[in-house]
UniProtKB/TrEMBL annotation:
<dbReference type="InterPro" id="IPR029063">
    <property type="entry name" value="SAM-dependent_MTases_sf"/>
</dbReference>
<keyword id="KW-0489">Methyltransferase</keyword>
<keyword id="KW-0808">Transferase</keyword>
<keyword id="KW-0949">S-adenosyl-L-methionine</keyword>
<dbReference type="InterPro" id="IPR012967">
    <property type="entry name" value="COMT_dimerisation"/>
</dbReference>
<protein>
    <recommendedName>
        <fullName>Acetylserotonin O-methyltransferase</fullName>
        <ecNumber>2.1.1.4</ecNumber>
    </recommendedName>
</protein>
<comment type="subunit">
    <text>Homodimer.</text>
</comment>
<comment type="pathway">
    <text>Aromatic compound metabolism; melatonin biosynthesis; melatonin from serotonin: step 1/2.</text>
</comment>
<dbReference type="InterPro" id="IPR016461">
    <property type="entry name" value="COMT-like"/>
</dbReference>
<dbReference type="Pfam" id="PF00891">
    <property type="entry name" value="Methyltransf_2"/>
</dbReference>
<comment type="function">
    <text>Catalyzes the transfer of a methyl group onto N-acetylserotonin, producing melatonin (N-acetyl-5-methoxytryptamine).</text>
</comment>
<feature type="domain" description="O-methyltransferase C-terminal">
    <location>
        <begin position="121"/>
        <end position="330"/>
    </location>
</feature>
<keyword id="KW-0471">Melatonin biosynthesis</keyword>
<dbReference type="Pfam" id="PF08100">
    <property type="entry name" value="Dimerisation"/>
</dbReference>
<feature type="domain" description="O-methyltransferase dimerisation">
    <location>
        <begin position="17"/>
        <end position="99"/>
    </location>
</feature>
<dbReference type="InterPro" id="IPR036390">
    <property type="entry name" value="WH_DNA-bd_sf"/>
</dbReference>
<dbReference type="GO" id="GO:0030187">
    <property type="term" value="P:melatonin biosynthetic process"/>
</dbReference>
Length: 348
């Protein structure tokens, strides 16, 4: 930021103030989703006054009017004045990404951010001082077992799986097509959770058998809540750290490496190399940092989130290349998608 500041920005810190207010903007969107604002406006098929929105959602008229005005200010809603009354309506963006009914809805992601990530980030200063996650302070749970915290109840597990599903709704196609994976006839998505990325891989490579391997209760929940009768992906219960891996041409590690300390990741990669069929490989999906530490800001924020929630971090491509080559893989290729997540492919 310092290299690009104009004199006017030095005279008055517009950009800094915008950053300061970032959490307020986020929480306004989160609260609107949790209250059902976007679903109501989509279903109404007509603009609504604040009074009508408040009555339908059980809120105060004053409170909802202020929230709606903020959503107009950040261009998520539209507003019009008719004969002295103010009416609010949805936009294409809110209908597509914020209403629950949309196939591209990010509502599950927003609920997870609001109810899990937001409380954790309230303890960011402590995380930086202590160098460890804040699950104990935020939720009263031991910091050592990160997935015990994430899956602390059926409701919390569903929230996390909804987050993962939302992620691959918008990022899955870019990851599935980052490299041509058609030569890999058996693909196992380790820790594939809800099956969101596996479904994208199965759609893109219909001649490949795609399997999700995850913990038994995750697999059972995925089958119950996140798959439909037309799904072609397969599910297998297992623990990729403790149990044997099913043989495969390609193993996928999507948002897995960044959860754990590097030694544990190296151990897992060596295990994958041993199980991988000759000529097969591993596809790592993570948010890649720049080597010069200047971004991308999304990946940097993700890395900070790993501090408050897990025991891992995000890495630049060189770190993944080193881990993969030490595990025995070669021909490491990197693809930056320009979106939230990137891909690294390595061959045995």
């Amino acid at each position: 930021m310092a290299e690009q500041l104009s004199q006017s920005e030095l005279d008055y810190p517009f950009k800094l103030l915008e950053y300061f207010n970032g959490f307020r903007v986020s929480k306004a969107i989160f609260s609107a989703c949790e209250l059902g604002v976007f679903d109501l406006l989509l279903q109404s098929q007509k603009p609504l006054a604040a009074r009508e929105v408040g009555q339908a959602l059980g809120t105060s008229e004053d409170g909802i009017e202020r929230l709606l005005d903020v959503l107009v200010g950040i261009q998520i809603l539209e507003v019009e004045h008719v004969e002295g009354t103010v009416y609010y309506s949805s936009t294409d963006v809110s209908n597509l990404y914020l209403a629950k009914a949309s196939p591209k809805s990010l509502h599950p992601m927003i609920v997870y951010f609001s109810q899990t990530i937001y409380p954790l980030w309230s303890n960011l200063g402590d995380a930086v001082r202590e160098g460890k996650n804040q699950n104990e302070k935020a939720f009263g749970l031991p910091s050592e077992d990160i997935f015990a915290a994430m899956y602390r109840s059926e409701e919390e597990m569903l929230k996390f799986m909804g987050l993962m599903n939302s992620t691959w709704v918008i990022d899955g196609h870019d990851i599935a097509t980052a490299f041509n994976l058609a030569a890999f006839k058996s693909i196992v998505d380790l820790g594939g959770c809800s099956g969101g990325l596996a479904s994208e891989l199965a759609r893109e490579y219909p001649s490949s058998r795609v399997t999700v391997l995850d913990l038994p209760r995750v697999i059972q929940t995925a089958k119950q809540h996140f798959t439909d009768s037309g799904s072609t992906i397969h599910f297998q219960e297992g623990d990729f750290f403790e149990g044997d891996l099913p043989p495969a041409d390609l193993y996928v590690l999507a948002r897995i490496i960044h959860d754990w300390k590097e030694e544990k990741c190296e151990q897992l990669l060596r295990k994958i190399h041993s199980s991988c069929l000759p000529g097969g490989g591993v596809l790592i999906v993570e948010a890649l940092l720049f080597e010069n530490r200047r971004g991308p800001i999304t990946a940097q924020l993700f890395s900070l989130n790993m501090l408050v929630q897990t025991e891992g971090k995000e890495h630049p491509p060189s770190r993944y290349t080193r881990m993969l080559t030490q595990a025995g893989f070669s021909n490491v290729q990197v693809c930056r998608t320009g979106k939230s997540y990137d891909a690294v492919l390595a061959i045995k």
